[in-house]
Write a structure and sequence with these properties.
The protein is built from 14 helices and 8 strands. It is an alpha/beta fold. An 8-stranded parallel barrel has the order 1-2-3-4-5-6-7-8, surrounded by 7 helices. Helix 6 (112-126) links the parallel strand 3 (98-102) and strand 4 (130-134). Helix 6 packs across helix 7. Bound molecules: 3-methyl-2-oxobutanoic acid. 3-methyl-2-oxobutanoic acid binds at residues 41, 60, 62-64, 102, 156, 199, 201, 222, 232, 234.
């Protein structure tokens, strides 16, 4: 946004203006009606606005921002304050979808009380409508307490990136019968504890399908096959801005890296050729002032330039 060209706060697309606000009730109805739920991550105002105006149901301010926005090699280092900062930016953009904030590693692992206090910050200070936590049965008490505190909780099972060290890398989970049964049991327990939805990441399609059929709440899949109630992708993967080889489950719908590179190279070219900015991109004095300048002694106008040059020479 140029500082000389203010956006209108009300300038929304026609579609968005008439689309009702998505709630967790809407997602529940979609599951019951067999209508797929759409979700994407978003981390800043401009992309959140595009995602929301396109009509996506859920925007997750994922801790994946540690990797795709901040350049870390895992999600572990991102802090509460950084997650709050990005959630606020997304909140300002979103009118239609549900804004879910990912609780970062360490913000709910020390105690349930600390987890509730940190989750409340996302609701109170950043305008999130729900929080997401990773983990299975071990999170049931936290999910109950958050639900008691009127904070909707999205859970996250399977390949949970905050457990990268325990898993020994980013590996598909639930591949043995015992592991699949444990995932299904965890999902049922989290639902009973009050979860409003569960993200199923990195697990065999068959396991995700069984979990989805057993739950009343919606499942949102990522690398979990097409039988989940909805799908989520990391925005930067969707548009090729991740600077890494896409995982098997990623489908790229655009090439923002190529688009941005072409734009940046064009800008460098035009500046170096002195073809940017041109006459139409320049501001002008009024005719009256220009006429005065032409006819009068312009020493006064030149003086500050001379003064600043003197200053530069003195500095050098
Ligand atoms: O942080 C994130 O982006 C996520 C999604 C992959 C579900 O947790």
């Amino acid at each position: 946004m140029s500082i000389t060209n203010f956006r209108s706060a009300d300038a929304q697309s026609g579609a968005q203006a008439i689309t009702p606000k998505v709630t967790f009730q809407t997602l529940q109805e979609k599951k019951q009606a067999g209508r797929p739920i759409t979700a994407l991550t978003a981390y800043d105002y401009s992309t959140a606005r595009l995602v929301d105006e396109a009509g996506v149901d859920m925007l997750l301010v994922g801790d994946s921002l540690a990797m795709v926005v901040m350049g870390y090699d895992s999600t572990l280092p991102v802090t509460m304050d950084e997650m709050l900062h990005h959630t606020r930016a997304v909140r300002r953009a979103v009118k239609h979808g549900i804004v879910v904030a990912d609780m970062p590693y360490g913000s709910y692992h020390v105690s349930v009380a600390e987890g509730v206090a940190n989750a409340a910050r996302f609701i109170k200070e950043a305008g999130a409508e729900a929080v997401k936590v990773e983990g299975g049965a071990v999170r049931c008490e936290l999910v109950e307490r958050l639900t008691d505190a009127e904070i909707p909780v999205v859970c996250h099972l399977g390949l949970t990136p905050q457990a990268v060290h325990r898993m020994g890398g980013y590996k598909v989970q639930g591949k043995t019968l015992a592991a699949a049964e444990e995932l299904a049991r965890d999902a049922r327990m989290l639902e009973a504890a009050g979860a409003v939805a569960i993200v199923l990441e990195g697990m065999p399609r068959e396991v995700a399908a069984i979990i989805t059929s057993q739950l009343h709440i919606p499942t949102i899949g990522i690398g979990a096959g097409p039988d989940c109630d909805g799908q989520i992708l990391v925005f930067h993967d969707l548009v090729n801005l991740s600077f890494s080889r896409p995982a098997k489950f990623v489908r790229q719908y655009g090439d923002a890296a190529a688009l941005f590179r072409t734009a940046i190279e064009g800008y460098i070219h035009d500046v170096e050729e002195r073809s940017f900015p041109d006459e139409s991109e320049s501001y002008h004095l009024s005719k009256e002032v220009t006429d005065v300048l032409k006819t009068q002694d312009t020493e006064a106008l030149k003086a500050p330039v001379a003064a600043s040059k003197t200053h530069l020479i003195r500095k050098a």
